[in-house]
Amino acid sequence: MVKYSIKDLEKFSGIKAHTIRIWEQRYQLLTPKRTETNIRYYDESQLKYLLNVTLLVENGFRISHICSMSDEEFNKNLKEVAEKGLQTKEDNHLSVAVNELVLAMLELDEQRFEKIISGSLLQRSFEETITKIIYPFLKRIGVMWRVGEVSTAQEHFIYQLIRQKVIVAIDGLIDRKKTGEKYLLFLPKSEFSDLLILLFTYLLKNRGRQCIYLGADIPFRDLKQVTEITKPDVLLTFVKAPASKIDTQAYVYELSEKFEEKKILISGNPYFMDELDFPKNVRLISEVEDLIEMLTE
User: Fold this and answer.
1) HTH merR-type domain: which residues (predicted)?
2) CB–CB of 204/212 below 8 Å?
3) pTM reported for the whole predicted model
């Protein structure tokens, strides 16, 4: 069983730890459990409950009212909030949407996933859904996965649902005359999680850029061969696997040296990417907004 600290609850729900403690003391919102050494912790059901409470709070319910609800009333209000399309201010709406996606992942609930994505697409473009909901959600679960709070099955479940949406969106783009730079998108050898590269492909194609998408696990030798054939202007890659800082730095240098005439964009492990040395033809893409800003320069 995964054990969550109060800081974990703060991180995943957006509710300050101090506020959670006040809610516990004043309204008995949650009752923390204790380890054999008397350390407080919370289980997955309590995290899910807090995320649902957050959903109601963001929709105007007072915490005192929420804590006095019966289970039946709580679930009824939760359902009504979901069905009315999350009538909140924009920032709160986005935060709620991300929390809803977390719940959909934890509960392996495809219907819940479809509802939140469909609700977003009624209000904003697919690109805005990517930048304001999907990408922040992926950043959150990246943290959750690294500390063992999301199983591989849960991660794969939600990744595949998002991946399907992105592929359909790419296929649905109107074919326009592509006169911009040509991008070659790929993952290095032993990298298999291509979701972020697919998101980048959509953003690029939506702006009329030419894209050659190679996918995952591309050996360096094959990359050189494809580059010679297709002659791209820009190489774009993503390093996520738990490679060391030294190995990643070596890969950056190798890319820069072997493709010195090309512009190279690279994204990856947030824990040390910004500490690397980037040669003049290599640019770090730390956030999806970095790519969008670059495309508008």
Assistant:
1) 3-72
2) no
3) 0.69
